[in-house]
């Protein structure tokens, strides 16, 4: 007992020291204030359900002055959070702050507030409530099968559709609802947010070891993968179950790095039981856990053939584990029909945008019947292109750089799928720092973060009936990104940084075998 207490005391000293070091950095304190502003801005009609208890606690919540105030607070919070993140990017000429501590501090202000930039967590809670009452969440009618407070928290567009998530995700929702004493609000807010937070803790714990394996800088990987404003605002603030999928995937790679083939494949199956796109992770897990023999011991054909066998065995193992997990969840196979649910709404998916543009052109020429089918046609073509794109990436990257394949395959899936939400970008954003994350890639990725933040704020302002303020705010965020890019370009930190700050294109540890 005394030894255990001494160990706990030593760990406490280490953690408290890291917290003090982080708090001493102005950018960390600025980011925490930014999170507080965003949390306060979330107390607005933008994403609050009509029966939210906040309407009773905050008078005049639906009035234009309050809408304008909360929209303005959110804008300042988003810009300040992005600014703090940029200022904390790892540099060789200053002490590095532990991003895991930073994320913990930034999460605190929004921990008990309503979901940020999304209302999906209310649907999670309602689906967990259905399971608690032995109602099939994949059934026709969705959460509306059980009318009441839980269903009324869900926005109408998702109230009457089957659950689009895997069986493991739904059982996690059920567990959260049970742990929070069947309380609709706290289950949907604090409960679901804690799942996301714990998931990001897993990612933060496993990512440094994976970065070291491929020769990447762990500090850069943590800075982009978990400190990213999109992660803070959407995965944690919005309490999306994508965080759980990513945690299981990263944990699978970490186990594969230790040679645990079966465990890694099972974790991929678990991630797939949350969201289907995680299945591509089996390629990286299989090849990392059981790499082909070195070049000197076998021909190139023999090594590639062995890699293909390993991937095939890993895929079969993951599929069998997926079946077992699905049967254990006891929810049947209704998730298959639910796969088309995300595409029922208009999103910024490239195939949807191109199909909508083509439909508008055809409407001008009076081709109304064909115009109505254009979005579906473009989505189907997009899915076909995505399949062939993933196959190309497999032959191009998987054999020598399996984590590169995983990151690029997730990019292809997000861009070619029928639906694309801002938080989908975290799928590949988690693994991108483990690839050739050089100076150019960092700049392009930073611009991507800025654009996603601008779009997210415009959506928030539109939902708050403040579209003019939304356009002004989006322009302000883009201007901030442009200013930061100019500063970044003038900064010579990457030109004179040690090699560890920039991943070399042919680092030997990136290659399998």
Arithmetic mean pLDDT: 87
- Reading the helices and strands in chain order gives HHHHHHHHHHHHHHHHHHHHHH
What is the CA–CA distance across the termini?
A: 45 Å
- The total strand number stands at 0
Tally of contiguous helical segments = 22
Give me the secondary-structure category.
mainly alpha
Strand content: under 5%
Tell me about the largest β-sheet: none
Residue windows where pLDDT falls under 50 for at least 5 positions: 492-513
User: Whole-number radius of gyration?
Assistant: 23 Å
**Number of structurally distinct domains:** 2
Q: How would you describe the shape?
A: globular
Helix-residue proportion: 55-70%
Give structural attributes.
0% strand; single chain; 2 domains; 513 residues
Break the fold down into its secondary structure elements and pairings.
Elements: H1 2-23, H2 26-41, H3 54-57, H4 64-87, H5 99-107, H6 120-132, H7 149-152, H8 156-159, H9 167-179, H10 184-214, H11 218-225, H12 229-236, H13 242-257, H14 261-272, H15 281-289, H16 300-329, H17 350-364, H18 368-398, H19 402-416, H20 425-429, H21 439-463, H22 467-490
Helix pairs in contact: 2-4, 2-5, 4-21, 4-22, 6-9, 6-10, 9-10, 10-11, 10-13, 13-14, 13-15, 14-15, 14-16, 15-16, 15-19, 17-18, 18-19, 21-22
Structural notes for this entry:
- Residues 492-513 have low confidence and may be disordered.
- The protein has 513 residues and is an all-alpha fold.
- The protein is globular.
- The chain folds into 2 domains: 2-347 and 421-510, no CATH class; 348-420, no CATH class.
- It has helices at residues 2-23, 26-41, 54-57, 64-87, 99-107, 120-132, 149-152, 156-159, 167-179, 184-214, 218-225, 229-236, 242-257, 261-272, 281-289, 300-329, 350-364, 368-398, 402-416, 425-429, 439-463, 467-490.
């Amino acid at each position: 007992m005394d030894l255990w207490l001494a160990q706990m005391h030593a760990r406490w000293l280490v953690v408290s020291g890291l917290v003090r070091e982080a708090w001493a950095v102005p950018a960390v304190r600025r980011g925490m204030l930014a999170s507080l502003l965003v949390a306060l801005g979330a107390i607005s009609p933008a994403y609050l359900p009509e029966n939210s208890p906040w309407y009773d606690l905050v008078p005049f919540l639906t009035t234009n002055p309050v809408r304008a105030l909360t929209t303005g607070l959110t804008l300042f919070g988003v810009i300040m959070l992005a600014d703090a993140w940029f200022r904390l990017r790892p540099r060789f000429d200053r002490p590095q702050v532990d991003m895991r501590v930073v994320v913990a501090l930034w999460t605190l202000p929004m921990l008990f507030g309503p979901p940020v930039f999304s209302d999906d967590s209310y649907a999670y809670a309602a689906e967990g409530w259905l399971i608690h009452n032995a109602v099939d969440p994949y059934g026709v009618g969705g959460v509306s099968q059980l009318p009441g407070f839980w269903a009324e928290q869900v926005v109408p567009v998702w109230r009457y559709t089957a659950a689009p998530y895997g069986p493991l995700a739904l059982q996690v929702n059920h567990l959260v609802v049970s742990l929070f004493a069947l309380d609709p609000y706290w289950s949907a807010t604090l409960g679901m947010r804690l799942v996301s937070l714990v998931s990001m803790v897993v990612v933060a714990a496993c990512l440094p070891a994976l970065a070291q394996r491929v020769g990447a800088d762990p500090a850069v990987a943590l800075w982009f993968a978990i400190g990213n404003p999109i992660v803070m605002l959407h995965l944690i603030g919005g309490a999306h179950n994508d965080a759980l999928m990513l945690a299981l995937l990263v944990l699978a790679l970490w186990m594969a790095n230790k040679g645990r083939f079966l465990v890694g494949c099972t974790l991929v199956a678990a991630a797939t039981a949350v969201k289907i796109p995680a299945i591509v992770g089996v390629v990286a897990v299989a090849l990392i856990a059981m790499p082909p023999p070195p070049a000197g011991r076998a021909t190139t054909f023999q090594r590639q053939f062995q890699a293909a066998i390993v991937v095939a065995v890993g895929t079969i193992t993951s599929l069998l584990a997926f079946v077992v997990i699905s049967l254990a969840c006891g929810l049947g196979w209704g998730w298959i029909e639910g796969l088309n649910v995300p595409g029922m709404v208009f999103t910024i998916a490239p195939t949807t945008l191109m199909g909508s543009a083509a439909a508008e052109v055809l409407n001008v020429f009076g081709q109304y019947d064909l115009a109505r089918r254009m979005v579906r046609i473009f989505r189907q073509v997009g899915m076909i292109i995505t399949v062939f794109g993933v196959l190309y990436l497999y032959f191009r990257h998987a054999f020598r750089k399996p984590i590169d394949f995983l990151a690029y395959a997730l990019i292809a899936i997000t861009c070619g799928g029928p639906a694309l939400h801002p938080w989908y970008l975290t799928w590949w954003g988690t693994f991108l720092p483990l690839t050739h994350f050089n100076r150019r890639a960092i700049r392009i990725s930073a611009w991507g973060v800025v654009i996603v933040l601008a779009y997210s704020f415009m959506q928030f302002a539109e939902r708050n009936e403040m579209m003019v303020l939304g356009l002004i705010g989006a322009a302000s965020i883009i201007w901030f990104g442009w200013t930061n890019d100019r500063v970044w370009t003038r900064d010579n930190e990457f030109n004179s940084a040690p090699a560890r700050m920039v991943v070399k294109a042919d680092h030997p540890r990136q290659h399998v075998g």
